[in-house]
Amino acid sequence: MRIDPTAEIEPGVEIGPGTSIWSHVHARGPARIGRDCIVGEKAYIADGVDIGDRVKIDAFVYLCKGVVVEHGVMIGAGVLFTNDRYPRATTPDLRTLRESPGPDAQPTSVRESATVGAGAVIGPGLEIGRFAMVGMGSAVTRDVPPFHLVIGSPAVRVALVCRCGNPMLRFRAGTVPDAGAVTCDACGLRYKVDTGDVIELDTR
Hints:
Layout: E1 2-3, E2 8-9, E3 13-15, E4 20-21, E5 26-27, E6 31-33, E7 38-39, E8 44-45, E9 50-51, E10 56-57, E11 62-63, E12 67-69, E13 74-75, E14 80-81, E15 108-110, E16 115-116, E17 121-122, E18 127-128, E19 133-134, E20 139-140, E21 148-152, E22 155-161, E23 167-170, E24 180-183, E25 190-194, E26 197-200
Parallel strand pairs: 1-4, 2-5, 3-6, 4-7, 5-8, 6-9, 7-10, 8-11, 9-12, 10-13, 12-15, 13-16, 14-17, 15-18, 16-19, 17-20, 19-21
Antiparallel strand pairs: 21-22, 22-23, 24-25, 25-26
């Protein structure tokens, strides 16, 4: 384990073996960071965040309370997660600061081996599916199905991606064809596409 001396790791933060925490990271407890992870400089990890094993978090990432990151996820530089659907600074009478996050806060899950590109903004209460990919700078406002690539603001589905990250099937934004059998040109893994669902045909 490597923790840069400038990092602020509060009590209650669990860090697995082999993980590297770089300069000026701030992690609030209770939170969990798995084994063999990399947390880039100036990243913020709120209390209640759960990060799996072999996760790469680049610099300036903001992980708010309630975010769950599963094994093998890649989160690019400057990604911002949110957890409050209707945020306000104060109560309606303007006399008291409102608790943050408020009562409408919702957790977000990033499933195993998904990638979130640099500068993306992830809305509250969403799920980014297994091996999905979010393009850089996208604003994600709805769930991303497994193996789908989304881009834009708001983000829309434009392709299916392989486990290796290579786009396998491109299509008109938001319309997933029933393509049947699809093979990745880069690595040869095979899939079946049925009503937008991606089914793996090769066992791992």
